[in-house]
Design goal:
By secondary structure, this protein is mainly beta. 14% of the residues lie in helices and 41% in strands.
Length: 143
């Protein structure tokens, strides 16, 4: 009988140590109760906002003595934007916008405007046609 006392005491001691040293479980936080939404006040479908209409871009260019003296050489817009190129030259010529195949007769000393919608994306050179003077490029970024 003495052979069983020592293992039984050791087993009881280990069981007591286990109960005494075991980790205590941490209670998980309970989220607060959320009342159901008032579906009567909510619209059936929420549509995304309509895209804003592109703002018109106006570029003022001045050419003197075969040089662009005022205005940007690169005209940057987003596809779909209405564009106005207003140009004044000191010699009679013609503005030509490649890729769009648009032309505008330019009388000397008068401000003249070319209006169009930039509906093609890419890079398009523009020049004074009779002088063979490349002025710059129109860059149209896709939407």
């Amino acid at each position: 009988m003495k052979n069983w006392v020592f293992p039984l005491a050791a087993l009881l001691l280990l069981g007591g140590l286990f109960l005494w040293m075991r980790p205590t479980p941490v209670a998980s936080p309970v989220p607060p109760a959320v009342p159901p939404p008032n579906t009567a006040a909510m619209p059936a479908v929420i549509a995304p906002p309509a895209p804003a209409a592109p703002v018109s871009s106006v570029f003022e260019l001045v050419v003197k003595d075969q040089h662009l003296v005022s205005g940007p050489a690169v005209l940057s817009v987003v596809q779909g934007t209405p564009v106005t190129i207003a140009i004044t030259v000191d010699r009679h010529d013609e503005l030509h916008l490649h890729g769009y195949d648009l032309s505008l007769k330019l009388p000397a000393g008068q401000r003249t405007e070319l209006h169009f919608v930039a509906d093609r994306s890419g890079r398009f050179e523009y020049e004074l046609h009779h002088s063979h003077l490349e002025l710059g490029a129109l860059e149209v970024q896709p939407q």
